[in-house]
Amino acid sequence: MELNKKIEGTRLTAIRFSHSDQYFASYYWFRCECGNEKVIRKSPVICGKVKSCGCFKTEIILKTGIRYPQQKGKEQNYFKKGDVPWNKGKKGSQEGRKKGHILIKYPNGNREWIKP
User: Greatest CA separation found in the chain?
Assistant: First the structure.
């Protein structure tokens, strides 16, 4: 990676080497076009997964007003207690199986044992 040269397809420029972690992944200081400097792992920047310091995502949210855009062909499901949960019908731990109950997990983190 060349220092002080903008990486193609991103808003980032590598400034200097920062450190390597326990898995030998390299981290660099990057300067974004917006002026922010941030330490980011090298590999996601090179392959194009990381394009900015986070300012690009903020711009998209401000322009569109959509925080989490839906993927094509998929509906976003938001469940409340009593609605159909993500794992309806799946068995839970051993205790639940002995009792004949089913563990229901909701996206907000709540869990509920129900008797079929």
Answer: 64
CB 89 within 8 A of CB 105: no
d(CA 21, CA 59): 31
CB of 13 closer than 8 Å to CB of 1: no
pTM over 0.85: no
* Identity at 65, one-letter amino acid code: G
Exposure on the CB side of residue 22, measured as CA atoms within 13 A: 0
Run of H or E residues at 27 = strand 26-32
* CA dist 68 → 47, 58, 99, 104, 106 (Å): 23, 12, 39, 25, 19
The span from the CA of 114 to the CA of 96, in Å, is 9
pLDDT, tens digit (0-9, with 9 covering 90-100), for 28-58: 999 999 999 999 999 999 988 899 988 888 8
| Helix or strand (DSSP H, E) at 55 | helix 55-64
CA distance 100 to 113: 10
